[in-house]
Amino acid sequence: MSDVHAILGAVVLVTNLLAGVWGGVAWVRREPSVVFWYLLRAAQVVVVVQVLIGLLLLAGGRRAPGSLHFLYGIAPLVVALVSETMRVGAAQRELAEAGDVEALERREQALLARRVVQREMGIMSVGALLIVTLALRAVGTGGGLL
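The structure assignment produced for this chain is given below.
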């Protein structure tokens, strides 16, 4: 199972890097991206599976060579949860600032939705890139990928 954990470590890095860069580029261009959300959700699933396998290894008596590996291994899950909370909060603030959304003209509603998605993409892209840095530290404190 430790081989699976090591391989998933690489997958965590790649999927979050891809999602973070894709979302960051879309955010800079101010172009909402449906593909970003699929990449992000796939990256989040990989993080959850990676953490679960790491916890199973830990419960089975397996210890990482570095004492900080556990901290850096669990931190991406925390970052994903905090990012989601921040995303929801940002969307709620944007909607609160708009007032009565139903009273807005159709075009204004579309622009509001675009602003919400833009803000959410920025937050989630930063979260994904932060997960990459934490995963790199987890690799460094765990003795490498394979």
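Interim note for the steering committee: The first helix runs from residue 2 to 29. The chain has a mean pLDDT of 91.
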